[in-house]
Amino acid sequence: MMTLNAHRAIAGRRPDFQEDGFTIVEMLVALCITALLSSLLAVAILQLRPMQRATDANEADTEIGATAVYLQRLLSNARPLALIGDDPNEKLVFVAERSSMRFVSLARVESDRSSLRDIEIVTRSRDDGIDLIQRNRPRRMPSDTPIEEFTISAGLSSVEFQFLTSPGRTTEPEWLDRWTDKEALPSAVRIKLSAGRFSDETIIEWIAAIPAGK
Fold this sequence. Notes:
Elements lengths: L3 H9 L11 H53 L1 E2 L15 E3 L2 E11 L2 E14 L2 E10 L9 E9 L1 E7 L10 E2 L11 E8 L6 E8 L5
Antiparallel strand pairs: 1-3, 2-3, 3-4, 4-5, 5-6, 7-8, 7-9, 9-10
Protein name: Type II secretion system protein J
Organism: Neorhizobium phenanthreniclasticum
Keywords: Membrane, Transmembrane, Transmembrane helix
């Protein structure tokens, strides 16, 4: 026969199904917390998207604006000097079309020194956009000196230049897509750059004055 103590021990033992698992109330609480956290995360993501777009747009504006300012600085230092490597009798000073320019200007050659260079600004197309390239030709070096080349800006959508004639006695200044008076400098260059590397197209238009062309 079972003793009284053994009977009490068996009677006081809890069933196995009461030792493990969650109650329905606990599961409902956990689901509510998960739903709340998911809602907060979704709201945060929706708020981050316009912030990221604004950041990308500001970066594009800054980059293209810096390119325009750089070109303006080169053009403001342009000199009415004949380009080397051409017919000396023609005395070509400024040769330019819709997406390219050649002129003489002061260019930085070292961290603290600038020197006259024949500057050539050209574009180079690639699969994902247009690169704006600068080539520098030293003017007082042997003809076989390597031409310096570097990229001003990469991945642009379009590059357009226009050239303002100097005011004359009988004609009004006008913007030209191609510079025809190659023995003189234009009085200004209109620079139009665009880039679509982000979600929106970024376009900037800048007018660079050339004091020596007036």
